[in-house]
Automatic annotation (TrEMBL):
Superkingdom of origin organism: Bacteria
InterPro entries: ADH-like_N (IPR013154), ER (IPR020843), GroES-like_sf (IPR011032), NAD(P)-bd_dom_sf (IPR036291), YIM1/Zinc_Alcohol_DH_Fams (IPR050700)
Record-linked CDD domains: MDR_like_2
Domain Enoyl reductase (ER): 7-300
The organism of origin for this protein: Microlunatus panaciterrae
Protein name in UniProt: NADPH:quinone reductase-like Zn-dependent oxidoreductase
Pfam family, one: ADH_zinc_N_2
Amino acid sequence: MTYSSYGNPDVLELSDQPMPKVGPGMVLVKVRAAAVNPVDWKVMGGYLDSMLDIEFPVIPGWDVAGVVESVGVDTPQFAPGDEVIANGRKDYVHGGTFAEYVALPTRLLARKPRALSWEQAAGLPLAGLTAAQVLKRLALRSGETLLIHGGAGGVGSLGVQIAAAYGARVIATASERNHAFLRSLGAEPVSYGEGLVDAVHGLAPGGVEVVADFVGGVLDVTLAVLKPDGRHASIADPEVEKHGGTWMWVSPEGADLQELSQLADDGQLTVEVTKTFPLEQAAEAYRLNIEGHTRGKIVLTVS
C-alpha cells in the first residue's frame, strides 16, 4: 500500500514497488501482519510534516510481525526463517510495513513471542514499547498505585499488564462497557468524564503515586489525584511539562521489545486484537482507527 501525497485514507492505493535493498546490519522481513496505529494516519495527513522527513511514494506502517527472508552483510544476530517483530520506524518515512516485504536494521528487531499469534504479535511493538518506556521513565515500583488514562486502548491495555507485572496496583479509566475487560487484565476500572476525580479518590483516598496519560486532555484530573511528590507523564499532552510531568515519544528499541516478548511468553502479557483486514483494505482499517473507539489493536494481514 502506498500514498503519493498527504491526505485522508482515500489517498492509499495498492501498487507494485521495488524489492527493498538489504544493507549491512539489516534483514529483509516477509510480512505476515502489520498493525495500524494513530501515528500512521497522522503522518499520512501531514500533521507531522514539521517533525518527519517524507519521501513519496510512502509505504506506511511501522509495526510488523514476519519471517526473516534474507540478511545483509555481517548480520549474525538473525538468519532466514527467524520469526521476528519490530517497530520499524526509520530515520525518514518511505519504506514501511504495509507491504509484502520490509527491510529493517537489526537494532529494531526482537524475536516473535511464541505465545502470540501473528496478528497479536504485530500489535505489540509500538503500543507495547510506548507503555513500557513511559512506565520505566516514571520509575514505577512494586506496591505503588498507578492511574492509567485510557486503559482499554492499544497502549493502555498493554500498560495495565506491564504495570501489573511490575507488582503495581493499577486504576484505569475506560467507558463502562470496557470495565470487565480491564478487570481481566488486572486493573480496577473507573469511568472517564464527570466524577472521575471522586472515583479515583474513592479507590485511593490519599492519591496515587504515578499517572500515565495515554489519551490527552486529562491534565486537570491528573493533578487533582496525584500525590504532592507523585510522578506523571503523557504521550499526548505537552502541557504536562509545565506541571512537572514528562511528555514522551516512543523509541523503537529492539532490546526493550525483546523484554515485552519475554513477558508474553511468560504468560504476563497478551494483545487484544479488535479487528483484522487484508492488506488491500488498509483504507478501511485507517477509517476504523480514526474513529478512535476501538478496544485493542487493528491489524492488517498479508497473505
